[in-house]
């Protein structure tokens, strides 16, 4: 039986290495080469397992049942209203007070010819867990390919109609964890539209707005700092970026969602997904009070989270993608982080 502190490692032929633990399937490290072949850990985190278990439990973790926010923690399904935990006032976030990030997942090796190595993570969430309807059975595959791709494959089934939105919450700094912030990273997002947030609501208000002419325009690559230091009202609300972007050309197939590049090391990362959105978050809540890797404080904008997902508050927005899962259906979600 898997324990919270159990450490699992995936490695490929290029010395790319992923480490994660049993609690939350939490990704604790991702070592990848730079343009010169030098290997560096590019995932923000803590120096050791003890610190990881005591620290920010969202760092690198699997989030659910519903990743991101649900306004006032309420939704209606088939005429019945549900009230979820309010753990990010005034909203519900990432499954509430006891989200999937805090659960110990059952982990076992997984054989698949596509991967150099892979693990399967499994979890059963009982009917009523986190105040959601239906027993939810979840499987997540972490697969590492010899093309330096981390593939995360999610599936879930339910015994009653419910809502599901799963994601991974790793923060990336392509210079290396503990080497400063990501202001100088170049970001490109395959999105002509995004979902603005309301300061009063604390999340999306249902609007789908064009990025053109705003600080959220990453159609052409630009530095993250250019947006984070702008006077755009959307940036000011969250002191950076914490927004859902609408993937252009979404059709349920795997699409390029974003590209991230560090000019210093030459490292690049591409994100692909079959989901309709990607939440880009610059980690504005980091305040240097916690010590991370290399013994350095985890500072504001230390890393970038790129969470492929259904839109925030989709259950309450008729114009947003459907997040309902019914018995006999299978929730499927693939995310690929490809390092170049």
Automatic annotation (TrEMBL):
Gene Ontology biological process terms, A to Z: galactose catabolic process via UDP-galactose, Leloir pathway; glucose metabolic process
The record's annotation in PANTHER family points to: ALDOSE-1-EPIMERASE, GALACTOSE MUTAROTASE
Reaction catalysis annotation:
alpha-D-glucose = beta-D-glucose
Q: Which residues constitute the catalytic centre?
A: 169 (proton donor), 307 (proton acceptor)
E.C. numbers? 5.1.3.3
Q: Which GO terms describe its cellular component?
A: cytoplasm
Could you tell me what this protein is called?
Aldose 1-epimerase
The yes or no answer to whether the keyword Calcium is present is yes
Q: Which UniProt keywords apply?
A: Calcium, Carbohydrate metabolism, Isomerase
Query: Which cofactors, if any, are listed as required?
Result: Ca(2+)
According to UniProt, this protein's pathway is: Carbohydrate metabolism; hexose metabolism
List residues binding beta-D-galactose: 68-69, 169-171, 242
Subunit-level organization? Monomer.
Pfam families documented for this protein: Aldose_epim (PF01263)
Task: Extract one GO molecular function annotation from the record.
Answer: aldose 1-epimerase activity
What organism, scientifically named, is this protein from? Saccharicrinis carchari
Q: Which SUPFAM superfamilies match?
A: Galactose mutarotase-like (SSF74650)
Give the record's family classification.
Answer: Belongs to the aldose epimerase family.
């Amino acid at each position: 039986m898997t324990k919270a502190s159990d450490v699992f490692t995936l490695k490929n032929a290029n010395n790319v290495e992923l480490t994660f633990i049993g609690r939350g399937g939490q990704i604790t490290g991702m070592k990848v080469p730079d343009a010169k072949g030098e290997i560096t850990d590019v995932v923000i985190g803590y120096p050791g397992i003890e610190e990881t278990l005591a620290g920010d439990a969202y760092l690198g973790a699997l989030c659910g049942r519903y990743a991101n926010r649900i306004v006032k923690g309420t939704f209606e399904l088939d005429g019945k209203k549900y009230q979820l935990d309010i753990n990010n006032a005034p909203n519900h976030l990432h499954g509430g007070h006891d989200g999937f990030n805090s659960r110990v997942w059952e982990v076992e090796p997984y054989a698949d010819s596509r991967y150099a190595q892979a693990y399967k993570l499994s979890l059963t969430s009982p009917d009523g867990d986190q105040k959601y309807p239906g027993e939810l059975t979840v499987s997540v595959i972490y697969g590492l390919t010899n093309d330096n791709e981390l593939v995360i494959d999610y599936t879930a089934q339910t015994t009653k109609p419910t809502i599901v939105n799963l994601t991974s919450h790793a923060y990336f700094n392509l210079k290396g964890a503990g080497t400063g912030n990501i202001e100088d990273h170049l970001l490109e997002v395959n999105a002509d539209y995004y979902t603005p947030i309301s300061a009063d609501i604390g999340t999306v208000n249902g609007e789908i707005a064009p990025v053109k002419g705003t600080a959220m325009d990453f159609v052409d690559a630009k530095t993250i700092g250019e947006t984070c230091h702008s006077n755009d009202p959307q940036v000011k609300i969250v002191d950076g970026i914490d927004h859902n972007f609408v993937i252009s050309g979404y059709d349920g197939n795997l699409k390029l969602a974003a590209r991230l590049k560090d000019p210093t090391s030459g490292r690049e990362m591409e994100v692909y997904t079959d989901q309709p959105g990607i939440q880009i978050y610059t980690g504005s809540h980091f305040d240097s009070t916690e010590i991370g890797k290399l013994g350095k404080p985890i500072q504001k904008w230390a890393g970038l989270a790129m969470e492929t997902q259904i839109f925030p508050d989709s259950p309450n927005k008729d114009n947003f993608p459907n997040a309902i899962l019914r018995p006999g259906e299978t929730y499927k979600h693939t995310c690929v982080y490809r390092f170049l």
